[in-house]
Design goal:
Layout lengths: L10 H7 L1 H9 L18 H6 L2 E6 L1 H18 L3 E5 H4 L10 E7 L5 H12 L3 E6 L5 H5 L2 E4 L12 H20 L5 H23 L2 H9 L5 E6 L3 H16 L2 E6 L16 E5 L7 H16 L3 E7 L3 H6 L2 E5 L8 H18 L18
Parallel strand pairs: 1-2, 1-3, 3-4, 4-5, 6-7, 6-8, 8-9, 9-10
Helix pairs in contact: 2-8, 2-9, 4-8, 4-11, 8-9, 9-14, 10-14, 11-14
The chain binds 2-deoxy-2-amino glucitol-6-phosphate (AGP).
2-deoxy-2-amino glucitol-6-phosphate binds next to helix 4.
Length: 372
Amino acid sequence: AAAEKGGFDTFMAKEIHEQPQAVADTLRGRIDETGQIVLDEVRMSDQDFRDIDKVFIVACGTSYHAGLVTKYAIEHWTRIPCEVELASEFRYRDPVLDRSTLVVVISQSGETMDTLMALRHAKDQKARVLAISNTVGSTIPRESDAVLYTRAGIEVAVASTKAFLTQLAACYLVGLHLAQVRGIKYADEVSAILDELVASPGKIAKVIENLEPVREMARGSVGKDRVLFIGRHVGYPVALEGALKLKELAYLHAEGFAAGELKHGPISLIEDGTPVVAIVPSPRGRSLLHDKIISNIQEVKARGAKVIAICEEGDAITASHADFVIETPATPTLLAPLLTTVPLQEFAIELATAMGRDIDQPRNLAKSVTVE
Ligand code: AGP
């Protein structure tokens, strides 16, 4: 078993380290020399993509978080309205779907019953269904109209890591493809994003090389009643994902919030010493967002929180406000989740290890949830 883990203590640790390769594999062959995205295996024509006037993304758990990130990207790049929904809620509320709706279902295993039932509902309503899955030949891709496979390889640990990053990569490809076939307002931005997407595996590797400070902070958070995660824009789904990892692995109360919502309730949870992990957007470009999260950091610090900020390297403003900073390489805001998620995975694994938890097989959880 030790050999299967490739020298790591757990499958999850091994899978965290496989992320640069997994993302590179997922991108490989899907961007041609002219910078066009080729999704031949998707079997939807350019005209099919042009006919779409609404996108729904439906998934569970971590895959749902990948969907939340994708909403920001799709709406910005394509101007097509995009909604994201938990699969277990989707079909029970009678969503408005028709032939011009694209339903993207995201499932690592391809067997999640909630997601499968949502997909069947979408097909009954005549929507087109595109699956993003890591498991070739599984039920969800088989029942979908089209499929884009992630190439994470087998993920053994119950807590999803490399599958999530490859879902993001695949979702970005879908968003950029939609933008390209529809003729876009942001052509320059899209080609810059593509270059950055191709560069992302190297940047993920840099984040992985620099995880020791996160481990230290995780050990310093042992014994706390709760850990909160805050973010804005795509940092919000990253906050949800960081909290889910910690719940799953450490059995600790962890919650992710949109940072702007703090003042509408959750800020009352902050006590002296409560760890708050803040996902800070780049100070370049969307600096308004950056200013806003700095004020959120100030608000929680004023109530005694210990702030761990995940920020872009060289972000001196964040460094001057947070108690600890973890730096990630510069990248466009929409792609940042590929980098900022990684320290949160490590935070969870380290804190859970310090608490003596079973990392690969947390209690009460199954890798693939085949009941509704
Ligand atoms: C992630 O760490 C979880 N174990 C879980 O939330 C998972 O992402 C969810 O059950 C969806 O699984 P799927 O991607 O295989 O459909």
